[in-house]
Design a protein that fits this description.
The protein is of the alpha/beta class. Helix content is 41%, strand content 22%. The protein is built from six helices and ten strands, in the order βββααββββαβββααα. Helix 3 crosses helix 4, helix 4 (175-188) crosses helix 5 and helix 4 crosses helix 6. It is globular, with a radius of gyration of 20 Å.
Length: 226
């Protein structure tokens, strides 16, 4: 038991073992170069309840995304609020958000998923970059640039040269949750290791309620998908 449910093992110069559930619910293990297969199996056995639950969430998220029909009355998240879609609107623009609801024109509905992603990306570029700028000023952090990515499982990351990367899907979460991910990556500019207690002390100093926002992402990752 253990090896049988592992779909892929990726070895690198990392120092710790990590488990990742891919969007297709497969289990990926990221491991140091010399860690034994038995050690990996032991970790998988210990984390089996977590793995099963995460795989369930991933399958549910995949079904939800596949089931989207972009029909009248369907709801979409933006900054933590569910907004209703009005399909078949009489307008020239493919997709419009009036602050209360989305409207998509009938002639563009066949490409509705693309138009929604494009809209979310545009919002993410403006809002997330502004939050990074403001929070970097508060924390005294120095970053090179902000990149909005299409990552499906990773909300944010910090590149080795000071580039901060954020998934456009993050813009579906409430603004305080967005700020938590921004703070998380800003702290990574100085503290690369999650396991170091000083990393979380710095996150907590900038955002005392970070555990609440971290839990929101964990509990809602199956709906903050597209």
């Amino acid at each position: 038991m253990g090896q049988e449910i592992i779909d892929r093992i990726i070895r690198s110069k990392r120092r710790t073992l990590a488990l990742q559930i891919a969007p297709d619910a497969s289990l990926v293990v990221r491991a140091p170069l010399r860690v034994s297969l038995e050690t990996i199996r032991k970790m998988v056995r210990c984390k089996l309840p977590w793995i099963v639950e995460k795989q369930r969430v991933a399958r549910e998220a995949a079904r939800t995304a596949a089931a989207r029909t972009f029909s009248d009355g369907e709801r979409f998240l933006f900054l933590g609020e569910w907004r209703t879609l009005c399909a078949g609107a009489d307008q020239e623009e493919p997709l419009v958000f009036d602050g209360k609801e989305f409207r998509i024109s009938e002639k563009h509905r066949s490409r509705a998923r693309e138009h929604f992603e494009e809209w979310y990306r545009e919002q993410a570029r403006g809002i997330i970059r502004e939050r990074v700028r403001r929070l970097a000023e508060i924390s005294g952090s120095a970053y090179k640039r902000v990149s909005i990515t299409g990552a499906g499982r990773r909300w944010g990351s910090c590149g080795p040269r000071g580039t901060l990367n954020f998934s456009w899907r993050l813009i579906m979460a409430p603004l305080p949750v967005v700020d938590y991910v921004v703070v998380h990556e800003l702290v990574h500019l100085e503290e690369r290791n999650h396991d170091a207690s000083r990393f979380w002390r710095k996150v907590g100093a900038l955002m005392p309620e970070y555990r609440e926002y971290k839990a929101w992402l964990k509990n809602n990752e199956h709906v903050v998908r597209f």
